[in-house]
Amino acid sequence: MNIYNGEILIIEYFVLHKLDDDAELFRVVMHIDFDYFFAQVEERENPAIKDKPVVVCVYSGRGEDSGAVSTANYIARKYGVKSGIPISSAKKKLRDVESVFLQVNHTLYDAVSKKIMNIIRGYADRFEQIGVDEAFLEVTEQVDGSFERARELAAKIKKEILDKEEITFSIGIGPNKLIAKIAAGRQKPNGLTAVRPEEIEQFLSPLPVRKLVGVGVKTEKALHRLGIKTIGELAKQNLDKLTSVFGMTFGAYLHTAASGIDKSPVQQRGRAESISRITTLKENTRDIAEMMKQIEKLAENVHSKSMQQGLSFKSVSVVAVMEDLKMRSRSKTFQNPTKNLETIKNTARILLQQLLRDETEKSVRRVGIKIFNLVHDKEQRQLNDFG
DNA sequence: GTATGCTTTCGGC
DNA sequence: TTACGGCCGAAAGCATAC
What we know:
Elements: H1 6-21, E1 29-34, H2 37-45, E2 54-59, E3 67-72, H3 74-78, H4 87-93, E4 100-103, H5 106-121, E5 126-130, E6 134-138, H6 147-165, E7 169-174, H7 177-184, E8 192-194, H8 200-204, H9 217-225, H10 231-236, H11 239-246, H12 248-258, E9 274-285, H13 288-308, E10 311-322, E11 327-338, H14 341-358, E12 364-376, H15 377-386
Parallel strand pairs: 2-4, 7-8
Antiparallel strand pairs: 1-6, 1-7, 2-3, 5-6, 9-12, 10-11, 10-12
Helix pairs in contact: 11-12, 13-14
The protein binds a DNA duplex through strand 2, strand 3, helix 4, helix 9 and strand 9.
């Protein structure tokens, strides 16, 4: 959802008024969130590890325990192990416990995810997959607008996936995506939470403003300065005050979102918006030739993926993670889409030179590359036909 | 001042 | 030596146009 898009706001405004006239018109949306997915799949593959902490890791290849935690099961989480922390500190937290550390196996997780998604999709009027372990289902027609039937459907889906794939997940049900997503997060793992339209206010009002899509650290701080901490407090603000602080578009968005209003449709996602690869260097360096060796490999990787999917790209970006783990990036956008591998490599070299010219002190730990502003072959031909 | 769109950084998983 | 992945989309930052 692009909340800055005026067109969407106008549509929302229209639908709102339509709703006033026709009150029984509301949706039933389900959000499904697989529980600690990677670690859960590993437990399924080897049930013997189920009663121990399971930590799925990405090893960087630098030293024995260099790398970060991708996911951990709930037993490991009790010891403070969670996604993103260094493997070494996870081991420290678990030093007194018999635990299982595994390397990520994306091929396996992708295959399991695909099977499950294909089953779930069958129960939705419309289906929107978010990454490998989340999905929104529009089920209004499936359940004829009944939240009771939506609950039954959710239980049925849970049972079927447990029987067929031995995977559990948490489900949230609400009148829109915003509510369904927050609801899914309330009871985890293996939860089922439904919020009916008449329950929206009591459900949302005690929650921190940060839970709203569109509210990041900066907006949260700004709201705190105004004495607004909860969604309920935000909903009580008058529209003029919010728009005077946050601007017309964003202020109006905050106002409606805090009231639990979200008209963004459940929509089949198209192609990914970007394709990227990143890798950790064997040693920190400022030697461009050394980094380019890696970047060329990444470029070939990204390029072949884009070719498989029939995509051209208009933009290339290079990212460097410096020795202090701060991230720096530079990008370039072309006039016309291309699918040329050499364009990626040449552009990457120039961008990397630029980046190092601006960042003169630190050496580089990781390098990565990204193509974006992707154009599907068919769309491109159409554009050309009409252009 | 406000809306828009592009670039860079952040943050969730 | 305190010390960490890889991917994605969202959020923040910034430039430009009106």
